[in-house]
């Protein structure tokens, strides 16, 4: 297997809901392991997600988990997940699902550099950027 880089998101107790939501957005196979399955947490964390991985038909891999017990959860704005390419229908479909009920900071529209681009923050606090490349010749 070759090396790959993929996002790993931390959640504050709602990783299951978030990962199931992303499976609805992108499709694919979702694997979830709880802290209880490894018996390394108290009962309040038994059903929380220790590791989740979504592998999609488009070749995306998105990982996520509930923040580990005993560690402080510090959400921030230093990271965004970027989706880009030239398959307009596919990317617009992702945008419609991700932006529905989210905080849209940049509407999906043509930008000064020529691409169609949008940014939103979903209900789980994850920032998404969608860039649809254009072929201008």
From TrEMBL:
SUPFAM superfamilies tied to this protein: Glyoxalase/Bleomycin resistance protein/Dihydroxybiphenyl dioxygenase (SSF54593)
List each copy of the Glyoxalase/fosfomycin resistance/dioxygenase domain by range. Answer: 4-130
Cross-referenced InterPro entries, in alphabetical order? Glyas_Bleomycin-R_OHBP_Dase, Glyas_Fos-R_dOase_dom, PhnB-like
Q: In its UniProt entry, what is this protein called?
A: VOC family protein
| Superkingdom assignment | Bacteria
Organism whose genome encodes this protein: Streptomyces composti
